Here is the input.
Amino acid sequence: MNHYRRRTAPKIVDLILSLGGIYIKIGQLFSTIGTGILDEEYVNALRPLQDGVPARDFAQISKIIEESTGEKMSDIFSSFEEVPIGAASIAQAHRAVLRKRNNEEIDVDDEVIVKIQYPEVAELFRLDFNNLELVTKLMAPDNLEFIKSLRKRHENELDFRIEADNLRECTLNLQKYDIEPRLVRIPRVRNETGICTKHVLAMEYLRGTGLSKVIEEEQHRFAKALGHSSAEELRKTLGNKMRKHFEESEDDRTEDRDSNFLESGKSKASTFIMGSAPFFTNILRAFLNVKLGVDETCDRMRYSGANVLKTLSAGKINLNISRNRPKKHAKNKSNFDLSRVLKTLIHVHGIQMIKDGVYNADPHPGNVLVLPDGRLGLLDYGMVGRLVDADRKNIAKLIIALSNKDKNRVVQIYKEGGYKAIWMKKNRPLLGSSEMVDDNLLHRFATWHFDRLDLSPVILANTKEKKDIMVIMKSGSVREIVIPDWIDQGRRLTGLLMGVSAQAARPVSISKQWKHIAEEVISEKSDL
Here is the structure.
């Protein structure tokens, strides 16, 4: 079976790349949320989609820019790097320097990022959503409005003028709470020359390290410190431990164990160090920094000893220091406090979704930078979700109920909010199954959507049967027939945030992280 997965995983990625468009976004989604759920071979194969896809050649890109702006490349830019810094599902990005013209206020060496949309993307998205709407009409007509709203969000992503407006709006929103630029940075739109069009967007260039690389490098350091042969071996261990963690019920684990679940399988000491709670992570990080300093000191002592022996053997003492002595190890700029990084990421998106109702709907690791000073750079505001006040209120109430473990209140909010799932038998609704599925199962769905991934067995409220939740889901025994927009938007965002945290081996409770934000929203609205 392992051989089969290793053989088929790259083929799945090749198929996704050949289909392009929305399929790449689906691949990015599963690469982020899949840790501990999907087999690690598939997660590893999909993970490169977070950072990019094969790029287009420069001739094609320059043609798009000139046709879209009506200007020559040489008139717009004083320099333009032909090799992109990244390529995604709908566009790729290049570093460049804007050319100063007339009295325009442009810094001579001020680099920008130029994002260029692929010409065929709009048509591919149109065809994909036409097919999706057709299937929905036939199979789940109650969800047609949901599919149409999803289509609208993706269509907005294809107009870079809307993305420019999103960047400005979300920047101003976060500045109200003293979050931007203190904790995060959102790139400023650079449209001094008027080159921002439907297919071209110029933005401030933020220098930083991609979150996916920060996570990967921490895993390399963990693997080395714990004696694993490779980070790949460690990631496989982490995936298995994450799955076991998700399969434990919350009652079976203490608060301290919530994020201290990893075992290297080698010793109790490894288990202690590998706990992903911030305290243990800081211990390991401190240990690695000390070890690096010790290694550097030893290198210098060995060099100095060899140099002394060399000069003594020559019959003289040479006190001069050679210019070729070992260089100091450069400080690892990606050795950040990953726990703090993730906490900030989750907090900021909670503020955006629950307080503002305007949020970045695609915060996978490829869209997040960690800047040299530890702040986050939040990229790609093409896909921005928007919630009306009533939907924000529903999410706020639900977050508080989940955090308080008020199961009855959670179920009530889901029912009153319009969510509906029914029991199925052989792909047909069971007789008399027009009512909602069992309340305990409904509570489990809400937990998945807005709190954490819980794969432990569920005890049905009506029959008291203990059911394997994965057997229920894989057998198609339950079908969601109505998914309100606020639930779909919320679960997509929280799924990505939970997935990033799982990828970093730090399982998280979204409701605990967002409870204080939700309470602030509730206190501001007396009619709640």
User: Anything to note?
Assistant: Residues 278-313 form the longest helix (36 residues). The chain is about 50% helix and 10% strand. The two ends are 52 Å apart (CA to CA). Confidence is low (pLDDT under 50) at residues 254-285, 316-332.
